[in-house]
Design goal:
alpha/beta; five-stranded parallel sheet
């Protein structure tokens, strides 16, 4: 019964504290400053967490190493940040523009997470200073089908349980992306193996890939187009 239910948000303690009056609620529009790249690098090395709020396509092409990817266009953006980002650690945001960064901060204010945001990182400045960036490999459904033939890759399906039951790739492993931080130990996957992560379209799986990378999975790739592309290619699915 509880398998399909999301875990409590990682910021639940903060929400409760706000409701009880122990912490202030953001009554005004929160303000967001730009953190210089060298300062941001020091903050990251000292435990600050980067949340990249751009699309999975922009994130895949280049991002700050170990940044969590949560697309702010998702209607559950602030909740997803609460689910996947480590509790209590201060946050740095990456967005496609200053306006988008401010919009992300305003969304986070609805659940009190804005109080953990230290500032935003300008990715162009970061690159101009020659600081390291990473990329997320994208795997087409046709390539995935070929790799499954010789069993060179494991598939992790991170959709909702109802989506999984409606049809999934044979021999795939299922774990809702919101559950990964708490239930990663339950997955029959090794950190050194190649893992293709899939959802419906590629957005949630990009978030899942960023979470897995932060837990030591080095060889993860995002399935471009997700199960929509898989069905579109006429590839087989199984149903429990």
């Amino acid at each position: 019964m509880l398998e399909a239910q999301p875990p409590r948000p990682a910021n639940m303690a903060n929400i409760v504290a706000i409701n009880q009056g122990a912490r202030p609620y953001s009554m005004q529009l929160p303000k967001l400053g730009i953190v210089p790249p060298s300062t941001a690098l020091d903050l990251i090395e000292n435990g600050h967490v980067v949340v990249d709020t751009r699309s999975q396509h922009d994130y895949a092409q280049g991002h700050i190493p170990k940044a969590f990817n949560v697309d702010q266009s998702n209607g559950a953006f602030e909740q997803i940040v609460g689910w996947v980002v480590p509790a209590e650690q201060p946050l740095l945001l990456v967005a496609s523009s200053a306006e988008q960064a401010a919009a992300a901060l305003n969304k986070l204010a609805f659940v009190g997470l804005d109080q953990r945001v230290v500032g935003a990182i300008d990715l162009r400045q970061w690159r101009d200073e020659g600081l390291p960036t990473g990329a997320l490999a994208q795997l087409s459904v046709e390539s995935l089908a070929c790799e499954l033939t010789d069993r060179s890759v494991a598939v992790l399906d991170v959709r909702e349980l109802a989506e999984w039951r409606a049809g999934h790739i044979a021999n795939a492993v299922h774990l809702n992306f919101k559950h990964i931080p708490l239930r990663l130990h339950e997955l029959p996957l090794e950190r050194n193996q190649r893992v293709a992560v899939i959802c419906a379209s590629g957005r949630r799986s990009s978030t899942a890939c960023s979470v897995l990378r932060n837990h030591g999975f080095e060889h993860v790739c995002n399935v471009a187009g997700g199960m929509i592309a898989w069905h579109g290619a006429g590839l087989d699915v199984v149903r429990p």
